[in-house]
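ok here's Clusterin, seq below lol
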Amino acid sequence: EMSAAGSKYIDTEVENAINGVKQMKTLMDKTSKDHQAILHTLEETKRRKEEAVQLAREKEQELAATQEVCNETMLALWEECKPCLKHTCMRFYSRTCHSGSGLVGRQLEEFLNRSSPFSIWVNGERIDSLLERDQQQERQFEDLEERFGLLEDGVDDIFQDSTHIYSRMYPFFQVPFGGFREAFRPPVQRVRLPPRSGRFSRELHPFFQHPHRGFHHLFQPLFEMTQRMLEEVQGGWEHPLGGFAPGKESRNFSDERMVCREIRRNSAGCLRMRDECEKCREILSVDCRQTDPAQSQLREQLEDALRLAERFTRRYDDLLRAFQAEMLNTTSLLDQLNRQFGWVSRLANLTQGTDGFLQVTTVLSKAPNLEDPSAPPDTQVTVQLFDSEPLSLTVPGDISWHDPRFMEIVAEQALQHYKQ
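and the structure came out like this:
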């Protein structure tokens, strides 16, 4: 009789938990629909960005083909510009950055030897920076997509286990829970990129076997990392040298790290220091329009294409940030629901006994309280809930064995132990 009363309480808690899991699935389905809209916007922004970069490269090639009319003047200036540019960049790097001067110096020398004055004349580092940022964005997007897929799969796993429990416990009861099975069907066809590797799957999938762990850990480290990168890049659009020039005394530590990292990754970043060298500035002033008027129009078209590509790159950064923020908001809500209701998914493989999930094995009166012999002694109850080991629980002596609250207290304590 006690086992039946306790199981009735547990059955109610299980049903409440299954309803909570349904809330998780409903939230995830809505998020998946929103996610499809975000993917569409990201794809459209990426397409327009790539078109602008492609146009810029075409205009760059057209300009390169016409530069021969000024080639002699430019080459002479370039030979005097290169040593000054290398010295300026390396002096700045050695004063600002902590390591790697030798390697950076060799990379820079190789870069300058294979480059032409045209790289300075058309701001060639802007295209290099755009292409590099495109690769970074692609990596961030793939990581976010893979983690989002794990989140969807995890919620689906918890939900599927809950449907199994519900159909086993309530095969005849459909009204208040109607549509539960239908809710498992995805609302939209999911678009998923092929995984770059199994790294995340191997590392994170065991999380879903432990529902009380937080969903947040799927995204928080990635969010913090990419947030820093996006802030650095965003600052780089407006402050090519991270907000300070080589001659300035006042420097910001985070800006310095950004510039050091950029120069190590891409020697073309040193071209941004061309204003420090007179001969490099003279290259910028070379005017070929008298011998080839089309060059002026080509340079203007190149600048327009670069500005457009940079604008769409910033837009893509903003969308990635919004994508991350939306996922963090969703994972926060899922986190709360999972901690409250996710435990029920562990019951999917259990077999319910004839007397229910809660079995009472012993009920004993404890020894009287020596400090207050007149007080009724507490009751010790040993139970087994689901697949747990036997638990010894204590009920206050002023609650009779026949009081309905008695088994509620026992069942509630047992469930709390099980959840923990």
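fwiw Confidence is low (pLDDT under 50) at residues 172-208, 238-254. kinda neat tbh
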